[in-house]
Amino acid sequence: MSKVIKCKLDIDSLEKAIKELKAYQDELQDKLEQFMDALLSVGFTEASSRASSFMGDSEPASVVKEYTVKEKDRIVATISLVGKDAIFIEFGAGIAYNTGMQHPQADEFGYGPGTYPSEHPPNRGINPGIWVYRENGEKVWSFGTEAKMPIYFASETMRNNAVQKAIDVFRS
User: Fold this and answer.
1) Cβ count near 128 (within 10 Å)
2) Residue 2: inside a domain
3) pLDDT tens digit string along 105-126?
4) pTM to 2 decimals?
5) Residue 156, domain extent
């Protein structure tokens, strides 16, 4: 998306060039919003499909996308996983459903299959494959939740599609 603006060095021609520049600035802002929307769409689709199909006993989580234009030069967009057990769906919990795939950032954040961050070690499940916890005074036996990593894969999908989406949007 390139634009050539020509003008003479007189007041009328310069005013016309300024108007063309402002129109180009608005067009560029529209293209940036379209680009962000295109990236959000592929990320949202990826995250939604992963968040809706997991093995385990966690409660489902929802994928939420937010898109905000702040001022004229800044666009903020987020995709997030929302729900009581969202962190388990992202990083996994327990060992039974997590025999091969671990979130690449699990160690950095202190999460992952067989772990449960706390101030008091040990922070790992004692009986591999089964978690026991209390909920409303009742013992709950849990085999955990598969690490589906919807947000991680959404970010990968958006990163891998960024160049093509930019070409598609800015060439149109």
Assistant:
1) 10
2) no
3) 877 777 766 555 555 555 455 5
4) 0.74
5) 11-171
